[in-house]
Amino acid sequence: MSRAVVPLIVALTATCTAEQSSDLPLAAANDPLPVQGISLLGDTLRPPPLDSATRQDRQRRLAAAREAFERHPENVDSLIWYGRRLAYLGRYRAAIDVYSWGIERFPTDARLFRHRGHRYITIRDFARAMEDLLRATQLTVDAPDRVEPDGLPNARGIPTSTLKTNIWYHLGLTHYLRGDFRRAASAYSECLRRATNPDMEVAARYWITLSLRQLGEEARAAEVVRPVTHDMDVIENHAYHQLLLMYKGEVAPDALLDTAQDGDALASATTGYGVAAWYLTTGEMDRAMSLMRRILDGPQWPAFGFIAAEADVARLPVEDGTDD
Asked: Of 89, 120, 177, 182, which residue is 20 to 30 A from 171 by alpha carbon distance?
């Protein structure tokens, strides 16, 4: 990352936590700032585009969430949903403001750190994300797990994640994006240990596999994918499931890419990065970089596959075209 970009990242992030007052954090929702952050490659990050129907639906849900929060600001559930609804409209910094306001008042509620950590990942502030997610692990160490409701429900309307699996999932992702693949594999192993359904299982196994392959530990990665089968009852994490079958040698990379091109941009970023990571760890650098650049030309910069591609491109050496 260019050093010139760092002060701007700091300035943008500082607005998320500075000058917290006793007033309800409503101003940011009224006047959303267009710039949400700066990418690891120095690009300006603005709210991703939404079609008209989706935007209207999410604005309606945000209005209801805000009204509920204004009526009961002491209710952490209302506060969390207000922040989540802001984020679904691409207002990630406003969501962080809401969670920060809540953390000042409810400093032992791990859910606030879990959600703020997630959105720090979105705006590329991995250091703050790691602080929040580590704090969330501490606050939940002796607490029973709980199912987390979905803000964007799957086709069956069945939530597939819990508070603890989400904490460990996002902590693992933070380590991965920072290039600390050993800690990423460890965190995702904790996520896998707590997984209660095939969706969280394939999500955790996917990132463990990528982390181990980034470390050059192909034999261990092969053991991680061994239990994955075609007939697993996956509800929503189909891309991770198919990518694991690819890493197992049962699905061709090109077949996955063809399918992803027919899907939405989020699925394309997820599948595209999974295939790119395969090429990266098999030494096919040109194919890996071509796929990653294609992902980075797309609109879904909040997607984890997009951020991972961005992190890899920022981390890898760049040919400057000059002679030694």
From this structure: 89
Helix, strand or coil for residue 48? coil
**Helices (runs of H) and strands (runs of E) counted in the chain:** 16, 2
Whether the CB-CB separation of 168 and 137 falls below 8 Å is answered with: yes
Q: What are phi and psi of 252, to 5 degrees?
A: -80, 140
Q: What is the DSSP letter of 152?
A: S
DSSP line for 13-40: HHHHHTT--SS-S-HHHHS--S--EE-T
> ∠ at Cα 185 (152, 291), nearest 5°?
65
Q: What is the pLDDT of residues 39-70, one digit of tens each?
A: 999 999 999 999 999 999 999 999 999 999 99
Burial pattern 182-203, b for ≥16 Cβ within 10 A else e, equals ebbbbbbbbbbebbebbbbbbb
Global pTM?
0.89
pLDDT at res. 165: 98
Above 80 in pLDDT, residue 257?
yes
Tokens coding 232? 């697993």
φ/ψ of 147, rounded to 5, equals -70, 140
Owner of token pair 């970009």:
5
For residues 139 and 113, the answer to whether their CB atoms sit within 8 Å is yes
Report the SS3 class of residue 107. Answer: coil
CA angle (138, 139, 144) in 5-degree steps:
110
CB contact at 8 A, 307 and 301: yes
Tokens of 245: 């079958």
> What's the Cα-to-Cα distance from 177 to each of 67, 119, 147, 210, 211, rounded to whole Å?
36, 14, 26, 12, 10
pLDDT in tens, 194-214: 999 999 999 999 999 999 999
